[in-house]
Amino acid sequence: MTVAAYEARMYQRLGLQPDAGRPAFEAAQSAHLAATVAQARALSPFYRRRADWPDAPFTGIADLPRLPFTTPDDLTRADPPLVAVSGGDVARIVTLPTSGTSGPPKRVQFAAEDLEATADYFHHGMAVFTSPGDRVAIAFAADRPASIGDGLAVALRRLGAIPLQIATAHDPQSLVVALRREAANIVAGPPVSLLAAARSSAADDGPPIRLKAVLVSSDHAAPSLKRAIAAAWHCEVYEHWGMTETGYGGAVDCAAHAGLHLREADLFVEVIDPATGEPLPPGREGEIVFTTLQPRATPLIRYRTGDRGCLVEGDCSCGSRLRRLAGLSGRIGDAAIVGDIRLTQAAIDDAVFAVDGVTDLDATLIAGSPATLSLRIAAPPRYRIPVLGVAVRSAVAAVPQWAPAVAAGSLRVVVTLADASLLQRTAKRRLRHEEDPCANSG
Ligand SMILES: [Zn+2]
Fold it and tell me: What is the tens place of the pLDDT at every residue in 72-94?
């Protein structure tokens, strides 16, 4: 099993033999954590000057809850800078928009060693389901940071696979054409792009696309979406979690699909109650927070990701004891409350992507009485007929938590059908909120 090699690499990166055992692994994590904290306090002006830093010495994992959080805002400020290396040691600076604001962008800086660590992680992560000789299509849109595709290509060559860069942007048909032309047997890309390609290819009567594995990454992947891709392409669907701040890689699925195995040599992950900041035990959903464990140009201590999920501990049926992330269900704070019901993009995705033919959706909740959930649905031409709208409305109305509100008329669901190209977007998909257009009309 290749998860064993992935796990062995984690042990090696912490300076351990692969058979050192879990207690030794956790002790090494704790020592690396103490080193990260010492490095950040010595070399990062931001961490050195923090007024909210505790006086007591930091000795390891048990002391972590005493330390203050780092937030995305801390990556937008230039003074004091968070970076822990001099400018000459910075190999790449990535600027990212701060979600939900028009403020300054986040800046994440990478040293050459950080980029090498990313390539090494991608190598061992992809090897969980990739073998030498595999033809792997990389379908991240060209407007994503180039480093994702570049880092993946480097990693795939290391494991003897053949990377195929396909800059598809948002057009599912061009991805389908490229998969057939290149005879790819694995494809990695954003979840909705791959869903659209899978359902488009299943509907176009063209030659079959023979894939053994699909990797979805860079946005929330609803369970129904993963099932739909697996059904359309008759393949295994693996999920990856990570973000620029984690050094791109973060956690990867195994064939058991019982949680994503964390990049535990590089990241110590906590899940906290987003309201109180208190750490939550395994199995409880909250906000994912991580601390970097290896020297980094941008050391991050208790960084609040804004992503929702929970930790899973103990043996996985694949044989690995690496801790896992599960319950990945979008962003903290993206929920809209209507009366006593809660709507999230993740839950809407899971309901609507279960409807055959749907390749993308765009959701807006319009406040008012009744509240209106406006769904623009993309589908291949043969599916773009009124019965699809009926099926989507029924799927939303059948969600147990929402059914009473739909039945009582306090939540109206309006569906419009569109070409996939009308839903083009570059940012992550979010449920939008609009005020009631009639509220101020007198
Ligand atoms: Zn596993």
Answer: 999 998 889 999 999 899 988 88
Contact at 8 Å (CB) between 325 and 251?
yes
- 180, 212, 241 — which closes off a domain? 241
Peptide bond into 437 cis (omega under 30): no
The pTM is what? 0.94
Tokens 């290896």 belong to 294
| Torsions phi, psi for 112 (to 5 deg) | -55, -35
Task: Report yes or no on 367 lying in a domain.
Answer: yes
CA of 273 to the centre of ligand 1 (A): 26
- For ligand 1, the distance from its centroid to the CA atom of residue 254, given in whole angstroms, is 5
Of 299, 326, 353, the residue that ends a domain is: 326
Boundaries of domain holding 352 = 336-434
Six-digit token pair at 355?
């409807």
Residue 15, domain member (yes or no)? yes
Q: Residue 262 C-alpha to ligand 1 middle, in angstroms?
A: 10
CATH assignment of the domain containing 47:
3.40.50.12780
Confirm if 373 and 413 have CB atoms less than 8 A apart.
yes
**What residues sit around ligand 1, an ion, with C-beta below 5 angstroms?**
254, 256, 316, 318, 320
> What does the DSSP 8-state code read for residue 70?
B
> Helix or strand or coil: residue 428?
coil
Cβ–Cβ < 8 Å for 390, 383: no
